Amino acid sequence: MHMKSDAGFDRRAFVAAVAAHGVLLATATWPLAGHASGERNAAAFGARSLDALYAALGLRPGDSSQAITLGVPDIAENGANVPVEIKVDIAGTNRVILIGEKNTYPLLMDVAWAAGGVPTLDVRIKLGESANVRVIALAGGKAYTTAKEVKVTIGGCAAG
Amino acid sequence: MSTDINLRSRATLEGDTAVIRALVRHPMENGFAKDASGALIPAHHLTVVELLHNGRPVIVNHIGSGVAKDPAMGWRVPGAKAGDVFMLRLADNKGATKSVEMKI
Predict the structure, then answer these.
(1) What is the ipTM of this complex?
(2) Which of A31, A82, A106, A150 is the most exposed, having the fewest neighbouring CB atoms within 10 Å of its CB?
(3) Which residues of chain B are within 8 Å of residue A118 when distances are taken between CB atoms?
(4) B47: nearest CA in chain A?
C-alpha cells in the first residue's frame, strides 16, 4: 500500500507539528532515512525476502549486540500470537526494526523514537513456522542487531 | 463499513515514566488467508500507530500484516508528569482511523 492509504490523518499537519517543535529534526534518522516525515516504507513492508527487505530499508543488520534485550518464547504453541518484548540499551537509539525471518512479509514493525525516548516495545506477532525473530536498532546512524529462534508448533495460518 | 477502529488504551505513571498500553480490535488480515468458501480474504491491517506526548510526536510505529490479530502494544515515555496528555493515532490500509486522548 502506498502512503495515501496510510494517511488517515493530515500528514502536512504532522510535518508542521514536527517543524514547530523542532526537536525531532535534531535526530539523525528522523525523518526516517529516505522517507520524508517518517512516511511508511511501502517497499520494505512489501518485501518478500530478507535480501529484498534489507535493500528496501537501505541497511544491513549490523553487529550483534548484547545491549538489545529480545524477549520471545523458546517454543510458541500458537504461531498466530507470539509475544515479543524489546528493550534497547544503546544511547541514541531512535529506530527499531522487528523482523520475522521466514515470514512471507518479513518486516513486522518499523518504529521511530523522538530524541530522549526510551526504546522499549511490547507487541504480539505472527510466525508462519519456526524461525529467527530479529531486532535491528539504529543509533547514531549505526545498526546493531540481535536474533532469537522461536520454535512454532502450530503455524500462524499463512502468517505474513 | 465503519471507518472507525475499536481501541482501548490506558496511560499510567510510574515515577516520571508514562506507561502506555493499547489494545486494538483489528483482524490484521495479511491477504493470504481464505474464508470458509475458499476465497482469499483481502488484506486488512493496521499501518501506523503514532503516540504524541502533549502534542509532540514521540513514537511512530509503522506496522505490517505480520502483527497478531487484535494487537496489544505497550510503550514507555520518560519525562512525564501528572496532567500530561497522551494521544494515540491509528490508521489501517483501508483508510480507517482512530485517535484518542488520555490524561494521566
Answers:
(1) 0.92
(2) A31
(3) 17, 76-78
(4) A6
